[in-house]
Specification:
The chain contains 5 helices and 6 strands; from the N terminus they run H-E-H-E-E-E-H-E-H-E-H. The longest helix is centred in the last third of the chain and has 17 residues. It is about 30% helix and about 20% strand. With about 140 residues, it is an alpha/beta fold. The mean pLDDT is about 90. The protein folds into 2 domains: about 70 residues, no CATH class; about 70 residues, no CATH class.
């Protein structure tokens, strides 16, 4: 890998590492090499594995927890699905100070459906009441598949 990337930069600005649980496979050598190749890297994790490596400045940890036992305590931001994972908000609030918390409405039957619209209203109420940020899957809102 060193020889492949040595002295080169990616034609793309960033890299998102996702799928399954990336922290099970990722090691510090690979992360260091990739961080010199990309301007930024976002590691999307469910929080079941702690991040114990040294983290380059251009690497960000996004945590979207599925379980109340969150082992990733140093995420750059957390995202909680509403209403499916709303019970995790208090746990995330405890971990997140002062990290950002995003709430994302669960889409059921399209963004025009009554259920999805209600989920959006719940998210907006949480943003207003608690200072969370709204996260929408924009490609779904505008109809891109």
């Amino acid at each position: 890998m060193d020889e492949l990337l040595k002295g080169r930069r990616s034609p793309f600005t960033g890299l998102i590492i996702s799928g399954g649980e990336p922290l099970l496979q990722l090691d510090s050598d690979l992360l260091d090499q990739l961080s010199s190749f990309y301007e930024w890297i976002d590691i999307e994790t469910n929080g079941t594995v702690p991040f114990t490596m040294s983290k380059p400045d251009n690497v960000f940890l996004s945590c979207s927890p599925k379980l109340a036992t969150i082992k990733l305590t140093n995420a750059d931001w957390y995202k909680v699905l509403i209403p499916d994972k709303q019970d995790l908000l208090r746990t995330v609030e405890h971990l997140a100070k002062p990290t950002r918390i995003y709430v994302q409405p669960v889409e059921v039957g399209g963004y025009e459906s009554a259920i999805t619209q209600e989920n959006i209203r719940k998210c907006l109420a949480l943003c207003s009441a608690r200072g969370y940020r709204l996260s929408l899957q924009l490609h779904k809102v505008v109809g891109v598949r």
